[in-house]
């Protein structure tokens, strides 16, 4: 690089020009470019600094002092502007990233609990509030618990009342003649009666809500899988009046004040006497009226005997209600399909203050 002349006036002017431009710069990029232009190797300041070396000794001091002042002035102007522009850049970055907490957010659609699940819980709460226990037996059950223990012999015509899914074997006894080795999908939650008696003993107060299975076709009021709640109480001195009292209380818990039940003589193998139970439903569509709701009766002595309980000492009552039926009545739903399709728009209608 050719040796430059040291020209104090020219370098002072150029530095003044540079400082002026720095003061007017509006971005950090612009500022950096000005630094390269006015303080870089090719700038007047750069060239003058190099030229000092070839000045006569007596001129060096004054030239050095001038250059020191110019560099300091330039550096100060640069530093001040850099601070200002950096603060501005930060501000606008923060402004761009600002989140408006008052804007409505995009919500994901919520699911809704199935009304049947809620009903099952309501029923459990009812029994727990009376001090009863909640029990749940297996859904794949031995024929013995499902039928035999409930006083249905293998050739009992009542077995045809409930079309059964057989899981293993078919009506064959094992070597010991014990039919319990055949497995079925339980056709009723009454299955839990003798399990409860054997596992928990007496006095016994249990409710068994759960799924049951029958080979029904799916139509407006039937599905092959549905839910029941069985209740059985066995103690000393229980009578049909106790049964009626619990049924009326359950009716009110499920259907509100004014609901009550009535019994009509009927037949079930596991109860004697047995009754069909009707519900007086004040909010029935088309006006209050009686609707068939479940089955009930006093526990048949043979059922107690199956669990080695002495029917001379203990007596009991039992009843069973269909949960889907209860739900259809309670909410005036006409079609079982709505219950099994799992459409959240259906369930959503029943979301209540839980
Ligand atoms: N298990 C019966 C059914 O599925 C309902 C029932 C009737 C249960 C009478 C009972 C009873 O406990 O005593 O249809």
TrEMBL record:
Mg(2+) binds at residue 272. It is found in: Cytoplasm. Its EC number is 6.1.1.20. Gene3D superfamilies: Bira Bifunctional Protein, Domain 2 (3.30.930.10). Its cofactor is Mg(2+). InterPro entries: aa-tRNA-synth_II, aa-tRNA-synth_II/BPL/LPL, Phe-tRNA-synth_IIc_asu, Phe-tRNA_ligase_II_N, Phe_tRNA_ligase_alpha1_bac, Phenylalanyl-tRNA_Synthase, tRNA-bd_arm. One of its GO terms (molecular function) is ligase activity. Coiled coil: none annotated. It catalyses: tRNA(Phe) + L-phenylalanine + ATP = L-phenylalanyl-tRNA(Phe) + AMP + diphosphate + H(+). Its main location: cytoplasm. Keywords: Aminoacyl-tRNA synthetase, ATP-binding, Cytoplasm, Ligase, Magnesium, Metal-binding, Nucleotide-binding, Protein biosynthesis. Residues 118-329 form the Aminoacyl-transfer RNA synthetases class-II family profile domain. Pfam families: Phe_tRNA-synt_N, tRNA-synt_2d. Signal peptide: none annotated. Transmembrane segments: none annotated. Binds 2 magnesium ions per tetramer. Belongs to the class-II aminoacyl-tRNA synthetase family. Phe-tRNA synthetase alpha subunit type 1 subfamily. HAMAP family: Phe_tRNA_synth_alpha1. Tetramer of two alpha and two beta subunits. This is Phenylalanine--tRNA ligase alpha subunit. It comes from Bombiscardovia apis. The gene is pheS.
């Amino acid at each position: 690089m050719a040796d430059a002349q040291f020209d104090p006036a020219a370098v002072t002017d150029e530095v003044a020009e540079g400082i002026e431009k720095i003061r007017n710069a509006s971005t950090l990029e612009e500022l950096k470019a000005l630094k390269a232009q006015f303080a870089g190797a090719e700038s007047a300041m750069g060239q003058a600094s190099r030229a000092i070396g070839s000045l006569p000794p007596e001129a060096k001091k004054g030239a050095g002092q001038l250059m020191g002042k110019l560099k300091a002035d330039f550096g100060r102007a640069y530093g001040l502007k850099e601070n200002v522009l950096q603060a501005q850049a930060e501000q606008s970055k923060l402004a761009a990233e600002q989140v408006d907490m008052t804007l409505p957010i995009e919500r994901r659609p919520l699911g809704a609990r199935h009304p049947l699940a809620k009903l099952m819980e309501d029923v459990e709460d009812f029994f727990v509030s009376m001090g009863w226990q909640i029990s749940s037996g297996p859904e794949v059950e031995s024929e013995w618990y499902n039928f035999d223990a409930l006083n249905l012999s293998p050739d009992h015509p009542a077995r045809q009342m409930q079309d059964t899914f057989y899981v293993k074997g078919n009506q064959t006894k094992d070597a010991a003649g014990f039919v319990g080795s055949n497995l079925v999908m339980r056709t009723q939650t009454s299955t839990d009666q003798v399990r409860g008696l054997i596992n928990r003993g007496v006095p016994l107060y249990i409710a068994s809500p759960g799924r049951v299975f029958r080979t029904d076709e799916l139509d407006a009021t039937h599905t092959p899988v549905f839910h029941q709640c069985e209740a059985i109480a066995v103690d000393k001195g229980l009578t049909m009046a106790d049964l009626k009292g619990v049924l009326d209380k359950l009716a009110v818990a499920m259907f509100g004040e004014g609901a009550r039940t009535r019994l009509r003589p009927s037949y079930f193998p596991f109860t004697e006497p047995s009754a069909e139970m009707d519900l007086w439903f004040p909010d029935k569509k088309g006006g209050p009226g009686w609707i068939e709701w479940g089955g009930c009766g006093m526990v048949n002595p043979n059922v107690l005997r199956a669990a080695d309980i002495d029917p001379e000492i203990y007596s009991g009552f039992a009843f069973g209600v269909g949960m889907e039926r209860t739900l259809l009545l309670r909410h005036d739903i006409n079609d079982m399909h709505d219950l099994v399709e799992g459409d959240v728009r259906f369930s959503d209608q029943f979301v209540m203050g839980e």
